[in-house]
Amino acid sequence: MGPDAVEIDANTMSLVAELVGTAVFAASGASAAVGKRLDLFGVVVIGVLCALGGGAVRDVLIDARPLVLTDWRYPLVAVAAALVVFRFHPALSRMRATMLVLDAAGLALFTVVGTVKGLEYGFAVYAACIVGVLSGIGGGILRDVLVQEIPAVLREDFYAMAAVIGAVIVSVGERWESRIGHWTLMLIAIAAVFVVRMVAIRYRWEAPKPKF
């Protein structure tokens, strides 16, 4: 297999990862909208913004054209996922644990992909981490603001912290990428974000809060 084939395969896998993350976050946003009893339009809008908001922030930061405006597959996947949630929400409403798992998976995928893109555009390690974290949490912030909830990132410390851990793993691990492999590094970082987020949910980890 030549280098061109390897590059095409890597690009395909990156596209698949981003589309999966898009669908997951769209479902998360649509579920929140359904919970607030919004109509079809509101469910789709919040689902799409949740799915594409973080990626749009990332693309603006790295001075790239937002994918939502240049690749029809992203908004199409987001709209389709939101419509599925709208149609089947009675069944999904009994699957809160599943939605938390999907949200953690979306956070992991977008954080890692965003950090990798920051590094590819020549950003310093700390800047690539910022790009990755904002890519991961941006959509969730939009979702919570639009449904009039305090953003999870402000009340669940290990939401953003999980993203930070994944971004640091990618940025620091880049120097050993030639030894362990690009996709191995990405999978390690994705798994780290996902596991930390799920353990934090399971054991209700949170930062100290003011006492009154």
Descriptive tags:
single chain; 212 residues; mainly alpha; 10 helices; 0% strand
Plain-language structure description:
This protein is mainly α. 82% of the residues lie in helices and 0% in strands. It has ten helices and no strands. Helix 6 (125-146) packs antiparallel against helix 8 (157-173). The chain is globular.
Helix content: over 70%
Q: Output the helix-strand order.
A: HHHHHHHHHH
Query: Ranges with pLDDT <50 over ≥5 residues?
Result: 2-8
Percentage of residues in DSSP E strands = under 5%
Shape: globular
**Total strands:** 0
SS element count, helices? 10
Mean pLDDT over the full residue set: 86
Radius of gyration: 17 Å
Task: For the record, give the distance between the C-alpha atoms at the N and C termini, rounded to a whole number.
Answer: 64 Å
Q: Report the sheet with the most strands, covering strand number, pairing sense and barrel closure.
A: none
Question: Which structural class do the helices and strands define?
Answer: mainly alpha
Topology, element by element:
Elements (H helix, E strand, L loop, with lengths): L2 H33 L4 H22 L5 H4 L2 H20 L3 H25 L4 H22 L5 H4 L1 H17 L3 H4 L1 H22 L9
Helix pairs in contact: 1-2, 1-4, 1-5, 1-6, 2-4, 2-6, 5-6, 5-8, 5-10, 6-8, 8-10
